[in-house]
Design a protein that fits this description.
This protein has 955 residues and is mainly beta. It has 10 helices and 59 strands. It comes from Streptomyces pseudovenezuelae.
């Protein structure tokens, strides 16, 4: 007996099968001569609340849809219509519906799409035609001219239907019914927005008689002989032409020629053509051989080091509908930031993206559209990947990925999917893939025993575990022990961070078995929002959501790089430049390329300003080689601090950046840091209400600084609080520590300042205080000692912890307020932010900015924007020098306001610019999903002393 009332006409929605009616999957390409008719643009659209609310009469010819709304195809309907068509939902791994596979809720938003089209006048009368859907979420039924041609699932996979027999010259009616939820949704539980719709192109393709059905380009490279071997298998016989190699060979036959190989560093593609009786197909052939050899991933005979990112498709207005320009922008940004690999987390991307990877050079892990993560909530019971009924759907997804994408040289790994537990279905997929394409490797992270894979892959393993693995001391199954290791996800780029990148890279470079990794992730999936700027989970009133966990990218939603990307660029730079005492050591860290593509320049910088510059002649070092090069005699200069800065630049234009683009750099100190000195010659004088000392006046009762010269200053005092970062808010898996909770429980965000004494001495004004939170015995003594030589004012802060401090401090320094400040100049680390473990990209120099531009716009406001290793800063009419160097932030709101804000639009400029001058910061880590800061980056509560020298700038 069944209680389900849904009529059988809609059974396909909950059917575990991949669908019916679609043609077998095949390679995706743009034909040179067969006609194509894009069916993009405005479609009629009707939204229903349930799958079965409407019958299929809308698919009939002559149906009057004039009263319907419209949506743009490709597109997600929930991102159109200003909310009239429903709203996006964000969950990380929770299914936003009851877990009762394969059933989905009765409330199942269903979008009927209708498009009427004529064939172009020159559409050939002979041959067949297919209609191709490149991506529809999550399940669609299709009718052409009233005939039901099939239904399918597999949102980010292409589906084609033969329609030639149904077409007519005019008035063709293409009707597509799309259901947000289907059995397929159980296989698509990726951490991203749920966004129904026809989100990739729909195209009508003419298929001339004698045109190719499917073809497979096999192009290998023998690094010992320098020969490439090409064989193109085609379902329809034809010839393969590669003019540059004088190749004209029958399909199915192998031919060998001397070639330049393809690699991500030198992506040499040969233009060719597959010519069959009915069609010419352009080929872009990259010769390369991928192998698992000696326990290593080798391409063209050499182990590669992956410096990768995980890329979801994202556009802040269009969701997963990406145009070519946006895809190209992603690839160019990656190349310009020294990234050499991309994992298409967690589904095959738009096929054009893979063309770009071939063209510009990126190693690709192409991942299948499969994730069943939500089953973890029930201990993986009933996981579809371990239930034979679902295996056909899994195999269909594997085949649709491999067949569509198999001709891309950039793809070195097929990935079975993400976070789907383990099971027979995955094994079946791996077996099928290995059989179909033995020339590539298989990846899957979810099985640490590596039953089905050619690489041991993990996510977010901390540094010490990665080192164990590098040393091959991690044990594991026999099969795993012989495999290379990658982190398919690491360094969670949520908010401020990720910290600890350089420490990972050091390990990857040290141990052969560690072949690199992929940062999680490329872009913040913020949705452009009229009131909030960018929306994240919860902003659309979702019942279940995971907040801003969807904003964890190296670039902001508008694709401006975040500091994390700048740091990554530096950490993975392909040339290391280091040295001391006038000798620079240059090391080539490419896997294949020599250094002939780079030009080297040096500059000699005094107090951050270049006084002399020149070129450095660096031999065309082979990968792994180093050279020690003598820098010229330094110019004479007095007193001030000096550095050498050496840069490696592109020697000529490349496809991805112009000549002069900086690929790598390094700095060598040429003298030591010059510390400010102020002779304490002035005497503090107690007046009626004020104490004066040099240029400064203080409150006579509290000793609080009031002004320096004509600049009013809101009292500088000890500050230990920072607006907690997403990483401070995250839980370290290993230890369960959440810094935000520890710090807030201790009360570090509500410290009270008790005044103990104001002492007017011979040559100093000394103010003694104790800074501590209510309800706790721990505290910090803070002694402020002010001295002056009559024009400069020096503050020395001495901090002493009292009680048992078991936690690190968020920050340690002073905070002061200035009535106005706009332009900011400094000598120190820049131009961007840096924290103890996100520090590599910070270059010592002379920098200019503004208070507004110093802010890093993390989507959820949090501590940001600190400039590190600062010798001096000028802002708001003051010059502030540090002894030792310090970090500073300057903002138009308080830390408390920053801490309370949930979106950038909550931050409103006040009347005061709040400046933090920090002696120390706790590291950033990447604990929002992974390890916290390494111990060497902890800011311990320990006795500390640091000084600042203030002077008034001439107006
Ligand atoms: C991983 C997962 C990603 C993402 C990430 C956290 O477990 O594979 O899809 O959820 O964590 O942002």
């Amino acid at each position: 007996m069944s209680f389900r009332t849904t009529s059988s006409a809609f059974d396909y929605v909950e059917d575990v099968s991949p669908g019916s009616g679609a043609l077998p999957p095949r390679a995706w390409y743009a034909s040179s001569d067969a006609k194509a008719l894009p069916l993009d643009g405005a479609w009629r659209f009707r939204l229903s609340a349930t799958a079965d609310a409407e019958d299929d009469s809308f698919a009939e010819e002559g149906y009057d849809a004039a009263g319907w709304a419209e949506v743009t195809v490709p597109g997600h309907w929930v991102l159109q219509g200003d909310g009239a068509f429903g709203l996006p939902i964000y969950t990380n791994h929770l299914y936003p519906f009851p877990v009762d596979p394969p059933h989905v809720p009765t409330e199942n938003p269903t979008g009927d799409h209708l498009r009427v089209f004529d064939l172009p006048a020159d559409w050939p009368a002979d041959g067949g035609a297919v209609v191709r859907f490149d991506g529809v979420e999550s399940c669609a039924r299709v009718w052409l001219n009233g005939t039901d041609i099939g239904e399918f699932k597999g949102s980010r996979l292409a589906h084609e239907f033969a329609v030639g027999h149904l077409l007519k010259p005019k008035g063709n009616v293409l009707a597509v019914r799309v259901h947000q939820w289907s059995a397929g949704s159980y296989l698509e539980d990726q951490d991203q927005w749920w966004l129904p719709g026809i989100f990739r192109e729909v195209t009508l393709l003419h298929r001339p008689a004698g045109s190719a059905l499917d073809f497979f380009v096999h192009a290998s490279y023998d690094h010992l002989t320098g020969e490439g071997t090409l064989r193109v298998d085609s379902d329809v016989d034809g010839r393969v032409l590669v003019p540059a190699l004088d190749i004209d060979v029958a399909t199915g036959e192998s031919v060998t020629a001397l070639v330049a190989p393809w690699s991500a560093e030198s992506p040499r593609l040969y233009d060719g053509e597959l010519v069959t009786e009915g069609e010419r197909i352009p080929l872009r052939i990259g010769f390369r051989t991928v192998a698992l050899e000696d326990g290593l991933i080798k391409v063209n005979g050499k182990p590669i080091l992956l410096k990768g990112v995980n890329r979801h498709e994202w556009h802040p207005e269009k969701g997963r509908t990406l145009d070519l320009a946006t895809m190209r922008e992603d690839v160019l940004l990656m190349k310009r930031h020294n990234i050499n690999a991309v994992r298409t987390s967690h589904y095959p991307p738009h096929p054009a993206f893979l063309d770009l990877c071939d063209e510009y050079g990126l190693w690709v892990i192409d991942e299948c559209d499969l994730e069943t993560h939500g089953f973890t909530e029930q201990n993986w019971r009933d996981n579809p990947v371990d239930d034979d009924r679902w295996t056909p759907a899994l195999l269909d997804r594997a085949a649709r990925m491999v067949e569509r994408d198999k001709n891309h040289p950039s793809i070195v790994f097929w990935s079975l999917g993400n976070e789907a537990g383990t099971g027979r279905g995955l094994t079946a997929m791996a077996e099928w893939i290995h059989g179909r394409d033995p020339e590539r490797l298989v990846h899957y992270e979810g099985d640490w025993n590596c039953r089905d894979t050619d690489v041991y892959s993990r996510m977010y393993a901390d540094h010490s575990e990665v080192e164990q693995i590098g040393k091959e001391l991690d044990g594991g199954t026999l099969g795993r022990r012989g495999l290379p290791f990658i982190q398919c996800e690491y360094a969670h780029a949520m908010g401020n961070g990720p910290g600890g990148l350089a420490d990972y890279q050091d390990l990857f470079e040290k141990y052969d078995r560690l072949q690199g990794g992929f940062i999680w992730e490329w872009i913040d999936h913020g949705v452009r929002h009229p009131e909030l700027g960018y929306a994240y989970g919860g902003d659309f009133g979702e019942e279940l959501h995971d907040g801003n966990f969807v904003c964890d990218g190296l670039i902001f939603p508008d694709r401006t790089p975040s500091p994390g990307l700048i740091e990554y660029k530096k950490v993975v730079e392909p040339v290391r430049i280091e040295g001391a005492e006038g000798t620079v050591r240059v090391t080539n860290k490419y896997d294949f390329a020599d250094l002939s593509g780079l030009a080297f320049e040096w500059s000699y910088d005094v107090e951050g300003e270049t006084v002399e510059a020149g070129t450095l002649s660096v031999p065309a070092l082979a990968p792994g080689e180093s050279a020690d090069l003598k820098l010229p005699e330094p110019p004479a200069h007095e007193g001030a601090e000096a550095q050498w800065t050496v840069r490696a630049l592109l020697a000529s234009d490349t496809a991805w950046a112009p000549k002069g683009h900086v690929v790598a750099w390094g700095q060598l100190p040429a003298s030591s840091v010059v510390r400010p000195s102020v002779a304490p010659t002035d005497r503090p004088v107690r007046g009626e209400k004020l104490i004066t000392l040099g240029p400064a006046s203080f409150d006579g009762r509290t000793g609080a600084l009031k002004a320096i010269g004509g600049v009013t200053v809101e009292n500088p005092r000890l500050d230990v609080w920072r607006a907690t970062t997403d990483n401070d808010e995250g839980t370290e898996w290993a230890t369960g520590i959440r810094y935000s909770t520890l710090w807030r429980t201790l009360g570090l965000h509500r410290m009270r300042h008790r005044l103990d004494s104001v002492e007017v001495g011979e040559d100093a004004l000394t103010v003694r205080t104790r800074v501590a939170p209510a309800a706790r015995e721990v505290g910090l003594t803070a002694v402020y000692r002010w001295t002056s030589d009559g024009s400069k004012l020096r503050l020395t802060v001495s901090v002493g912890p009292e009680g048992e401090w078991t936690q690190p401090l968020p920050r340690l320094g002073i905070r002061l307020g200035l009535p106005e400040a706009d332009q900011v100049k400094w000598f120190g680390g820049g131009p961007g932010e840096a924290y103890p473990d996100t520090h590599r990209a910070s270059m010592v120099g002379r920098w200019d900015s503004t208070v507004d531009a110093l802010q890093t716009p993390y989507l959820r406001p949090q501590e940001n924007g600190a400039r590190a290793d600062v010798r001096w800063v000028e802002l708001g009419g003051l010059r502030i020098e540090g002894d030792p160097e310090f970090s500073f932030t300057a903002r138009r709101w308080t830390t408390e306001q920053l801490d309370a804000a949930t979106h950038l639009t909550d931050l409103r400029a006040g009347d005061t610019v709040w400046v933090n001058l920090d002696h120390g910061h706790h590291g950033v880590g990447s604990q929002s999903c992974g390890p916290g800061p390494l111990p060497q980056y902890h800011l311990r509560a320990e006795p500390a002393e640091f000084s600042f020298v203030f002077s008034v700038l001439p107006r």
